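Tokens in:
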């Protein structure tokens, strides 16, 4: 119990701005050292684009060209009637990886075909009748685990103690506390936004199995596994490659959603920090305004189901 309390104290202390040089030295008990600040920022898509066909890797020239195309994308004037969005200053998407997709298995870089149930879940449509119709990420509820790269806040803090590995996801300040003591998963009737994780060491690789996901994770546009729900089983592997790189990959199994398993590889790169407290719902005028806009559309008849008075 003392170890758990001490671990939680360390995790809570990590929410203040902190750089690598300011972090405490934690006991590793002979474990490989995964501790530190890491980012998975990249513009590499989850699935391989059709024009890449069966190509698993990009050339240096192709990577440079794709990175150049992305520069300043958000500084371009918006279309007529479009209020625009954040300018380039706010984004930290990263750059392209050599691999043409984050999915590395199957070899075509594509997620296996959906089952009928998986297809139905993957095609959910965001409504505007209530905030409950919006996706979980937009509502600041969760970005899921493992969090896929996005436009910003792609940073992680990994802490280690002899009995636990803790991963703080900067986005929505979600924390995964992963025990390493062979305890069983929680009861199958309990579903969690980020699932229930259990870890073990396989040589120099940390293997994390996560089950017990809440069915509603399907309503998260940043979910690791589009269309997956309560039957999702994830197996992640973290391996220290060198001083500045962690090999991170996860294998997805959900026979109710996909025709077969698939694996994504999303390397983590060390950065100096700091990592800041993340605030989402405070002053979230976007939610209020999009619902108000839907009411206006209903009044003037431009929203399906609306009527002109």
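Residues out:
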């Amino acid at each position: 119990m003392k170890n758990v309390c001490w671990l939680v104290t360390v995790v809570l202390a990590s929410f203040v701005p902190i750089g690598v040089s300011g972090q405490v030295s934690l006991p590793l008990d002979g474990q490989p050292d995964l501790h530190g600040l890491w980012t998975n920022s990249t513009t590499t898509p989850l699935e391989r684009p059709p024009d890449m066909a069966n190509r698993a890797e990009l050339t240096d020239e192709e990577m440079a060209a794709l990175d150049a195309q992305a520069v300043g994308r958000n500084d371009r004037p918006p279309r007529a009637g479009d209020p625009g969005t954040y300018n380039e200053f706010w984004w930290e998407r990263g750059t392209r990886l050599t691999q043409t997709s984050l999915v590395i298995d199957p070899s075509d870089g594509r997620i296996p075909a959906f089952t009928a149930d998986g297809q139905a879940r993957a095609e959910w449509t965001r409504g505007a009748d209530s905030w409950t119709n919006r996706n979980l990420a937009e509502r600041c509820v969760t970005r899921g685990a493992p969090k896929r790269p996005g436009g910003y806040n792609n940073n992680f803090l990994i802490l280690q103690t002899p009995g636990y590995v803790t991963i703080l996801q900067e986005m929505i300040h979600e924390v995964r506390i992963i025990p390493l003591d062979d305890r069983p998963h929680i009861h199958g009737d309990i579903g969690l936004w980020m699932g229930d994780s259990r870890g073990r060491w396989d040589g120099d690789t940390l293997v994390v199995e996560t089950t017990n996901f809440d069915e509603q994770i399907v309503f998260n546009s940043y979910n690791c596994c589009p269309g997956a729900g309560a039957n999702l089983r994830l197996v992640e592997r973290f391996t220290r490659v060198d001083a500045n790189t962690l090999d991170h990959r996860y294998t997805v199994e959900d026979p109710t959603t996909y025709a077969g398993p698939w694996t994504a590889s999303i390397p983590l790169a060390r950065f100096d920090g700091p990592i800041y407290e993340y605030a989402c719902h405070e002053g979230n005028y976007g939610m209020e305004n999009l619902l108000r806009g839907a009411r206006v559309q209903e009044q003037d008849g431009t929203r399906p189901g609306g009527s002109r008075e």
